[in-house]
Amino acid sequence: MNGWTVHDIPDQSGRTAVVTGANSGIGYVTARELARRGARVVLACRDRTRGDAALELLRTQVPGAEAELALLDLADLSSVRTFAAELKADRVDLLVNNAGVMALPQLRTVDGFEMQFGTNHLGHFALTGLLMPRIREAGDGARVISVSSGLHLLGTVDPRDLQMDGRYRRWIAYGRSKSANLLFIHELARRLAAVGSPVVAAAAHPGYAATNLQTAGGRLEQRPVAKHAIELTNRLVAQSAEDGALPTLYAATAPGVRQDDFFGPRVQFWRGAPVRSLRAGWTRDDRASSGLWDVSERLTGVRYGWPPRV
Predict the structure, then answer these.
(1) pLDDT of residue 233
(2) Pick from 60, 93, 183, 292: CA 20 to 30 A from residue 116's CA?
């Protein structure tokens, strides 16, 4: 694992990968490098204009790439269902749940959920469930990878206040949504292991990588000082999106990835080659993960049916 780079990605020919949020940043790099190694890549993006631009750039950087754009808004469960229904793939070998929002003002999804929890967790929970029959069809070598964050340490999911209707704090809401990503992977991994499935569920985080994710909140609230401060910090201390994508690519492709693994940069929560990462103990709590799974099925209306509850 030491010194692992994109040059170590195994051949992906014949495999189909779905990458959410693939129009920029870590998602784009992930999609591009999978395509470079031969995968058929579906760029699942919310905005058609940005998605088309990303697809054109990918085809320029990887001539002959087998790649396509499909629209997906994780903050709208009807969009998630439409994406899954219209996806032109009999099997999905790799699902990378990468898209997300960070530290937004208090907003609601189309379905009325707190925006960060609804987008970062519930949207991906529903997407994974709807695609699970095709992930199972891929069989040996299939993986579900969720992109979390070192900031999951800010807090775990509070089942009494999932929507943070009490006191909303943008960074706590973000941390909780990233803990939810890890709890989801933990529970999915348990259920897959219980039935002996070859499908692997694992997670990754990029450390501190310079992407447009950090500045979205400032743009929405028209807080130019906050936006410029984050941009300056990104330039001074953050690693590139290219390097930030390495833990995700490792989790998605490297041999020896185990159920419920979590990868991040070698210098914890910051930069470096991918290694197994520290994580909060609460993200491995069976009772919490099972409870979150149950409430996620209820809120989204997506019931996996398989793997069974354990």
Answers:
(1) 43
(2) 93
